[in-house]
Design goal:
heterodimer; A: 686 residues; mainly alpha; Cytochrome C Oxidase, Chain A; two-stranded antiparallel ribbon; 6 strands; disordered C terminus; B: 261 residues; Four Helix Bundle (Hemerythrin (Met), subunit A); two-stranded parallel ribbon; 7 helices; binds protoporphyrin IX containing FE; binds copper (II) ion
Chain lengths: 686, 261
């Protein structure tokens, strides 16, 4: 075992221990229930937990993430047992349907997260500070090879990669869930997830609801992690900073997202839930325990997003290079600022709204319970006050990536730099004024409808500025189309479709028909793919060489693009069509009389095609890390500072500071460039 | 006035501001018991908040010139300060959301079960604690470690008093009067729910503030801070005043505004 490749050692451990865990779970189940249940939640949980912990143990040893996970489980058990004990003393039932009762699970979930944080070691330095001890600015990593990503590091580049890879993993999980429930939708009636299906204590339709709901939220979390990944990696490099302003906080933000994801996934095993990602009461006030794990997971992930937004804002304000005035910052930095402003503030509202439902369930506090004088509509206001601005959190960095990449690949200045920079802030601000457009049919006061309709239509103005700038930038440029550029162009087309389908939703008269149909599903997949997924891929293809010194394979990249784009366009346009015909969203079955069976089959096929294209991407990504073609220079002939030094980026970033001497996007003009490195007195040249 | 030069006038300024705040708080109370003047109460709360933010939390330091050397302690402190304020902004949204919830669910009513005397009492205790916190921070700024420790210890005890007053006295009294968070008791309405969540979330912040105070007190005992380098002290002080700031809005929202039903 000793001289085996650690990755394969981990895989072997995964296999052996997940089987062992399954057996243990099965045994426990038999002890408690007296009968064998192969598809129950307990063996599944044990198999997953044993397997993954063993995997990390095999790869990495008992430290970092392994220790975090073990501590999380132990912490959850201790917290849960503690509450069970209290309930016992109070004369209440100590154990419930899913071993623990709901209060035990919630409290245990919380103590589990705290234990993870301590176990993984990300608060070690803070504890020392609290005790009045000093800590070194930089830590030596335990490993310097790829295994360093499994432990706590305060290097923004490592954290950026950690975020990005975690986001990709979550995208894979969320995508898998989508494929499962999309398969059931391929034809009317129930064939795949039927009433007879039994898994984790849920039947087919229940499973459909859980997977559909989890798909939504897992994807949202993966988006939040994905944008943090790109921002973390790129922004300090663009600014010429050594690191983020608060490196430890940065690591903390990342590491609390991991137990949050575990909580989120655990809801699948605790009865699931059926509300969709929005978690509206009254339904969410009576869904199974899984609902609470969902709320708690999102709550913790929300803090991750808040703290990383804080870090970004401080970094941009305080750590820019000499000469980088506001109007000379790269446009992606502006986009990050706008996103972070929203994430910093609005996120608290979704956290609060979920917290209030949790308390309603735990203590019977009637915030949203109409029978007790509460107001369910209030939940929707609190929820959308975050969740509408949140859609701009998702897309602004992506739109920034488009603006950042276009000039490089058309060799022309970015058209209207100032307007583009300001439009990000404009979108962020107006985005706060439109939330109730999600509530036209909710029964809120009717006089609110028209103002929210107009404020929503107003968002089109700053968004239009961006489109205008993109088109004008491309106009008469010397266009080349390597993979990152293809994805940037694809993003523009897809985002345009998403943007155009917004106003019909925002117009009260049409929304009354469209609300809660597949038209909405088509709308937001277009906006989110155009604003996040396509630009995210563009960014990965573009900055991959910076991180690894190798580039991803172009042919595979083009296959990825040309397979995904048409399939995706067909998928969303088809969704909109069936929506107009009368297909409701979030439902396991539909009426054959709608005559949309054929459409649904085609939509399912296109969903699988997208999945295949993403598999091609995954292969390309992991294969190229070691075996890609070497690319250590300024591969894209960019003016940006990070490309003026060799790849992969050195550990402590630039060895000399730089000064901004020109405009960021003056491609094709004769000038001295954007930045100039400052030679230290008597320093070496080269 | 903001940039006092010597220790004596800096402490004197703290006293002046405290007197303003105390008068405003008493006025608030008497206005509320005498007339129904919600807008006046809002104006007074906002003025109190402005005084606390400017003089006790010295928000103006955000614009201070920290010099050009990014590795200096002053520059790093400026960075930390900005981060702390962003954190408070974010946290402020939690409390804004709670206020919005209260306005939506209770409107112009408030729970009649609360004890007005106790409410004014805990409010006064928290306000006085802010006064001592300010003295403590000022002492540290002038290198007076003993003065810092003494004043911070007083702040801590007052803060503890507030916490006990709310959680162990007011909560019990209110529950005894019939204001409950409704463990399945549908007659309660959202009144109790709103009261307990608002005071509970605030008390949670008081608790974290107390821990923070203990940490800096203990570090001062070990001699970690100097007149030039005491970011930890400043952070604890600003956070403590923030907790007071929230209560400046929560107190009228729960005890004074609207009719008691
Ligand atoms: C920035 C890109 C955008 C993103 C990421 C986005 C995302 C979303 C999402 C996720 C939903 C569904 C929420 C749910 O689950 O119920 C949604 C619905 C909606 N979107 Fe967008 N959207 C974007 C742009 C727009 C624009 C430009 C408009 C209008 C001008 C718009 C108007 C609406 C409306 C009115 C709804 C509610 C429809 C309903 O539920 O009846 N969106 N959007
Ligand atoms: Cu919206």
């Amino acid at each position: 075992m000793k001289n085996m490749n650690p990755f394969w050692r981990g895989m072997l451990a995964l296999l052996v221990f997940s089987l062992a865990g399954y057996g243990v779970g099965l045994g426990l189940d038999v002890l408690v229930d007296g009968k064998v249940n192969f598809s129950g939640p307990v063996p599944g949980v044990f198999a997953l937990f044993f397997g993954f912990t063993a995997f990390f143990l095999g790869v990495f040893g008992y430290r970092g993430i392994t220790r975090g996970l073990v501590w999380q489980v132990v912490g959850t058990l201790i917290g849960g047992l503690f509450v069970a004990l209290i309930r016992l003393v109070m004369g209440l039932p100590a154990f419930g349907d899913f071993f623990f009762t709901e209060p035990s699970w919630v409290f245990g979930g919380l103590t589990g997260v705290l234990s993870f944080i301590v176990g993984v070691g990300v608060v070690d330095d803070w504890i020392k500070w609290a005790r009045g001890l000093d800590t070194p600015e930089h830590h030596e990593e335990h490993y310097s090879d790829w295994r360093k990503y499994f432990g706590v590091s305060v290097d923004h580049k490592v954290i950026g990669v950690q975020y990005t890879v975690t986001a990709l993993l979550l995208i894979a999980v969320g995508g898998l869930f989508a494929l499962i429930f999309r398969t059931e939708l391929a034809a009317s009636k129930l064939q795949f997830l039927t009433d007879q299906t039994q898994l984790f204590g849920q039947n087919g339709p229940q499973l459909f609801n859980t997977l559909m709901s989890l798909h939504g939220m897992i994807m949202i979390v993966s988006i939040l992690l994905g944008i943090s990944g790109i921002i973390n990696y790129v922004v300090p490099l663009l600014l010429g900073a050594q690191d983020m302003a608060f490196p430890r906080l940065n690591a903390f933000s990342y590491w609390i997202a991991v137990p949050a994801a575990v909580l989120l996934l655990s809801s699948l095993f605790l009865g699931g839930f059926d509300t969709g990602w929005t978690g509206y009461p009254p339904l969410s006030a009576r869904a199974p325990v899984g609902m609470q794990m969902f709320f708690l997971g999102v709550f913790v992930a929300g803090w991750s997003s808040v703290l990383s937004a804080l870090n970004v804002l401080v970094t941009v304000v305080r750590m820019r290079s000499v000469g980088m005035t506001a109007m000379k910052m790269p446009i992606f930095v502006w986009a990050s600022v706008a996103t972070s402003l929203i994430a910093l503030t609005a996120t608290q509202f979704i956290g609060l709204s979920f917290q209030l439902v949790m308390f309603q369930r735990l203590f019977g506090m009637g915030f949203f319970d109409a029978a007790k004088g509460g107001n369910p509509i209030l939940f929707q206001h609190l929820f959308w006050f975050y969740s509408h601005p949140a859609v701009y959190v998702f897309v602004l960095p992506g739109l920034g990536v488009i603006s950042e990449l276009l000039p490089v690949f058309v060799r022309k200045p970015l058209f209207g730099y100032r307007w583009v920079a300001m439009s990000s802030l404009g979108i962020a601000l107006v985005g706060f004024l439109v939330w109730a457009h999600h509530m036209f049919t909710s029964g809120m006061n009717e006089y609110l409808r028209v103002p929210f309709m107009y404020s929503t239509l107003l968002v089109a103005v700053p968004t239009g500025v961006k489109f205008f700038s993109w088109v004008a930038t491309i106009w008469k440029g010397r266009i080349s189309t390597p993979t990152p550029m293809l994805f940037a162009l694809g993003a523009i087309v897809v985002f345009l479709l998403g943007g155009l389908t917004g106003p019909p939703n925002a117009t009260v008269s049409t929304d009354l028909h469209l609300h809660d149909t597949y038209f909405i599903v088509g709308h937001f997949h277009d906006t989110i793919f155009g604003g996040f997924v396509f630009p995210f891929f563009a960014a990965l293809y573009y900055w991959f060489p910076k991180a690894t010194g190798r580039r991803m394979n172009e042919t595979l990249g083009k296959i990825h693009f040309w397979l995904m784009t048409p399939s995706f366009l067909f998928l969303t346009l088809g969704m909109m069509y069936v929506g107009l015909i009368g297909m409701r969203r979030r439902i396991v079955d539909y009426d054959p009389a709608l005559l949309i069976d054929g459409w649904h089959l085609a939509l399912t096929v296109s969903a699988f095609l997208i999945a295949i294209s993403v598999l091609v991407f995954f292969y390309n990504f992991f294969y190229s890390i070691k075996n890609g073609e070497k690319a250590e220079g300024n591969l894209w002939h960019s003016r940006s500072p990070e490309w003026q030094v060799p790849s992969p980026m050195p550990v402590h970033n630039y060895d000399r500071p730089f000064e901004v001497v020109g405009e960021p996007y003056d491609y094709g003009l004769n000038d001295a460039g954007y930045v100039k490195f400052i030679e230290s007195a008597g320093g070496k040249h080269g | 006035m903001a940039h006092s030069q010597d220790k004596h006038s800096a402490l004197g300024q703290g006293v002046t501001i405290f007197i303003y705040l105390a008068i405003l708080t008493l006025l608030e109370y008497f206005v509320a018991v005498s007339f129904n003047a919600t807008s006046l109460l809002v104006v007074m709360a906002v003025s109190k908040a402005a005084l606390v933010m400017y003089y006790y939390m010295h928000i103006y330091k955000l614009g201070a010139d920290d010099g050009a050397d990014p590795h200096s302690y002053a520059y790093k402190t400026g960075t930390n300060r900005f981060g702390l304020w962003l954190f408070l902004l974010s946290d402020g949204f939690v409390f804004a959301g709670l206020l919005a919830t209260r306005i939506n669910l209770l409107g112009f009513t408030r729970p009649h079960q609360l004890s007005q005397i106790l409410g004014l009492g805990v409010t006064a205790v928290l306000l006085i604690s802010s006064f001592f916190m300010n003295r403590g921070e000022t002492a540290m700024k002038y290198g007076d470690r003993k003065g810092f420790m003494l004043n911070t210890a007083i702040t801590f005890l007052l803060g503890l008093g507030f916490f006990i007053g709310v959680i162990f006295v007011e909560w019990r009294l209110a529950a005894a009067e019939g204001l409950t968070a409704s463990f399945g008791n549908p007659a309660d309405g959202p009144m109790g729910a709103v009261f307990y969540i608002m005071t509970g979330m605030h008390a949670f912040h008081v608790l974290t503030g107390l821990i923070f105070l203990y940490v800096v007190w203990n570090n001062a005992r070990k001699g970690v801070y100097t007149a030039e380098k005491h970011w930890g002290v400043e952070a604890a002080a600003v956070y403590w005043h923030f907790v007071d700031l929230v209560w400046i809005f929560f107190y009228p929202a729960l005890y004074l505004i609207g009719t008691a039903v």
